[in-house]
Amino acid sequence: MAGYCKDCFTGTVQSDVVLSGIEQDIHGLPTYVTGPEAGTKPRGTIVVLPDAFGWTLPNTRSLADAYARRVQATVYLPDFMNGHALPEWTIQGMEYTPPATDFFVLRAIKRAWAILQVIPALLLFIYTCRMSVGTPRIRAFLGAVRVAEPGTKVGVAGFCWGGYHAVVLTHDIPQNKTAVDGKGEGYPLVDCAFSAHPGLVKVPKDVQGVVQPLSMANGDDDEYMGREKMKLLKQVLEGKNEEQAAEVHEVVVYPGAKHGFANRADWHDPLHKEYRDKSQDQAVRWFRKHFEAGSDD
């Protein structure tokens, strides 16, 4: 499973969260939509690019609600996976641990059986949500948002699978631009991006292409990125800041954080709950900063 790691498919489901958004059809896709309190003018629009568990995962919807409330933004969480996101039950299968009272061979058989049940769902996700399918769908949605909301700042927040897209959407290439108000096709799809523990990212290639403001959150040695890749990634983005003599991009490293911590962390683990909350704060600050730049409010 090149481009993915075990932790891309594990974590904790927050089944007890109280959500405030609604489901609507937005630009042709089923979408979880949430916004600031009634009577509050949105400062911008955030499009959430989810992890492998897609647009229905309660964790990701809860994050969308938090962004809407704290940034004062309209937030869209679309079904970019066309119904092929991993079901929540695969998390239990990946993390299943047989009872310690079972003898060794029986435990091994039970563990292998749990993994075998998950493999078809993983293979279906990897095939149906490959980049050549998902990337055009995301760009088309963002282009429609730009056309429908021409004067609105637009940001993306991506996690794991979506974290990759958040990175490449900051590249200065024709595919990441659209026509707005008849002014040609040179307008960027996004004004800024936040990417947490991205999968599939090629370092340094995908990072060298970053142009639009990018904020990244990652562990120092997570299952996918690894310590050396993280050092190189940080070096590339800091070098871009030095070239422009400004803090255009940022990388926040969370020592010991597991891949997936920003939205599938075990909130019973004090360290990972802290990192989950801090990464949310990081994203909120980033969007506030870039949505307020040039604002008339």
TrEMBL record:
The keyword Zinc does not apply. It holds the Pfam family DLH. Residues 30-290 form the Dienelactone hydrolase domain. The chain crosses the membrane at residues 112-129. Keywords: Hydrolase, Membrane, Transmembrane, Transmembrane helix. GO terms for molecular function: hydrolase activity. This is Alpha/Beta hydrolase protein.
